[in-house]
Amino acid sequence: MRESCVIFRRELKSYFFSPIAYVFGVLFLGVLLFGAAMGSLVDGTSASMQAFFGWLPVVLLGFVPALTMRSWAEERKMGTIELLMTFPVRVSSLVTGKFLAAVVYLGFVLVLTLGLPLTLGAYGRLDWPPVIGAYVASLLFAGSFVAVGMFFSSLTRDQIIAMLISLVVLAVLFAIGVPVLVALLVDWMPAWGVDLITGISPYKYFQSIARGALDTRDIVYFACFCGFFLYCNALVLHYRRHKG
Amino acid sequence: MNRPDSERGAVLAITAHVVLLLVVLGQIVYLASRHRVRLDLTSDQLSSTTGSTRTILDKLDKRLVIEAYFSPKDKLPVNLRETREVLDNFLDELTQIGKGKVVVQRFDPNEDKAISDRCTRIGVQPLDLRSQSSTSLSVDRHWQGLRFVYGGNKQKVLAQVAPQYWAAAEVQLTPAIKEVATESKRKIGYMEWPATAIGQQAPGGIGWNVLRTHDQIAKRFEFQNYKDDDGALLPADLETLFLYRPKDLTDRQKYVLDQFVLRGGTLVVFADAAEYAIGPNRQFTKLPLQLDAAGSGRHFADQLLSYGIDWKQKVLADMASEAQQPRDRLTMPFEYLAVPQMTPFGQQLTPVGYPYFFHAMALDWSSAADQLSRRDGKVDKELAESYRKQFGPGIPTDDFLFKVFKQIGRGPGFYWPTWVGLRERAGVADLPEGVTGRVLMRSSPAVLAEDPPAMLDPLGRGDARTQMANLQKFQQKLVERFGSEPRQQAPLMVDVRGTFASFFAGAERPRRPSEIKEEEARKAAEAKQAAEADAGAAAAADAPKPDEVGPPAPQETDSSIPKAAPEAEALAAAERPGRIVVIGDSDFIRDDLVRGDYRQAGGPWSALGPAFFAQLLDWLAEDRDLLELQSRVPVDRKLKFVATDSIAGGDPRLAEQTLRNKTAWLRWLNVLLPVGMLAVFGLLVLLVRRAQKQSFLASLPS
What is the pLDDT of residues B23-43, one digit of tens each? Predict the structure, then answer.
């Protein structure tokens, strides 16, 4: 745990000291809030964060791979991974520390969006509990994307390749949770196959919580999803460490 | 040679790890989805389905296929796009809750002509929206309809569905599912005595046909008329009988009702003490109404009294203004009287109080005892105490029957209602042994009871001003009466149940008309035979006697005499517990008031009557499936950027501009402020870092 904390602090610092993280953060906030403000802040409509949480997964899809691409790929490219592997630190602590740092950074960026619900609450009767639930869901959703991004970053030393692979995989994972796109599968796939595929998508579970219902199934799913990719990430690093 | 082998082994081990982990995690997720704990975070529970939908889906024993005829979402206009989102989510939810019993199939009618033809055939309707530019006019056809197919044969179509939010989707879809999944309709018998129609609007009188045949009701309940001229006993399988505005009841009909209740039936009486016709100018004229038929030896009111129900045939007027008019006139439907009046904006209908039309309030009137017992500014403590004991709530809103009315705080509107309460002795309910009962609806304690007056016309003839003056005189008389009469609260609805004793116990069973006819015919035939026999005997005495050979000649019978079928033994005591519900008004479900025939003229209009009737049906059937759904009312969460007061009365263009400016300002503030904050924070961090770096470099020996 202590080892994870050390790694976590180190990684978090690197996020806050990196100009790229700010550039992406500003872009992320700009795009997300512009789309959300145009959709939500309309006189006479219901005070709801639906537009914001509708936009968020799409924006995260572009933002998270850019954020996570450097997590391992850069270490490998700079040669610091070898040094890191020689530390008396367990691989799982390394992975957990990096993962938590990325999630906390995303959480920080999400906190900056709280102005929107505050505005909605000031001019209408915003229902706060589901908004808080949806923020939690957003963090879980972002966490699942971070886990995927980190895993693909561990497979290659090229950040751009890591980002592209993550982007493609995340886009597929996202798409298989979108009902309109799933409808396309219906024609050439049995119903159970469609159910199985849609069951993998984090987007489906995100939507479920964002609607205002906190479901143990969704939380278990996110825990398992992140756990799986973080475990795979650790396996890759283990393999590398043993391989020398 | 060893190295590749060990590498292969490691890869294999990793692969095995991953596969095993996938299997384990997959199982965990599967188990978690089977044993879910769900917490609805919305404060008004609007973002999740109610227990109603779950109960109805749980009860499905066949497959429910929901065919969604949806044109592509991205081509929908923006206002419809949100509704599609809601619908999609709700359909997903139904699939999840349905646990395999609900299947959603999506079709795009714009893509395939065959599908759009099918839509037309089954009743799904397109929404044609025109878009116009300076050079062209185009019509875009959008589809958003549903067909529910249950068990392969029963179906229900929602031609167009556009729910704005989750709860609205549930309100539309869940009753449709219930309707299509209802295997057998519940049978309800009725006997009716329609109100006399003025000006021949309705040949045969004004009954309650509109609600009986209403699509939502008729799909779940089957109504059958049992008003039989011959007074046959009601069939054993009939559970519920509605008596709509009973009048001219014969002893035989009363006996039929008595035996029905003794055999365990539920009798629901929509009672009226008087019949008032509504004339073309809204004149209310009393028409003759005799509860008991001519020649009837037993009174129906006495019959009800023997079961524990006290029906005082009085007409009630509630003097409490909140009982006559809704407090929130803007959002509540106005059900009673309005008088046309000239205003600066033209002729408008002004609601006026008419104490003979009122509703029960969701108030506990015992808490108003002090206020009501105030004499010369002081509270009469003794009187207040007696009022506290005497008065009760207008409607018990936590009761299944009234939950729908909880939000609006009042019951359905009643028109010239009558007093129906429990039998009392010395102010305490005095019910027969084995019978329990309760009052379900009460007026306010400001009620006046009287024998039905011949005229209850508050407006009279003439122009609006004359009508208003007449009304004031009419009200003044009632106010004077009110001042001189003691405070009382009138019961408006009772429910008694238990093992009733027969009203006809120890007396001869009233015979059916056919039996009486048969008896009369038999007597006439016997008399005729006797006369013939006498004549024959006289002739035989004169004539020689022939030898008697063969069997005796058969007696001649008169085939014109009707043969009454034998009927069940009369019961003196209940076979099973029965139930009697008496509602002190029948007008709230009568056709002209439900349809709103007088709405344009200023009422009366039974706006809440249909909702109460529908709820009554579910209450009688103990069908609570839709209760949660019906008692849920969404909170208004509309955004209001500019206060109405600040723009009202001003230039509309200026108001529009103010709103536009405020919206734009809020939008940019929400976008630029966080972005700017992050950028400034980042810049500061970088500057600090640069300064640190420079000071570090400066500290190094050159």
Answer: 888 888 888 877 777 777 777
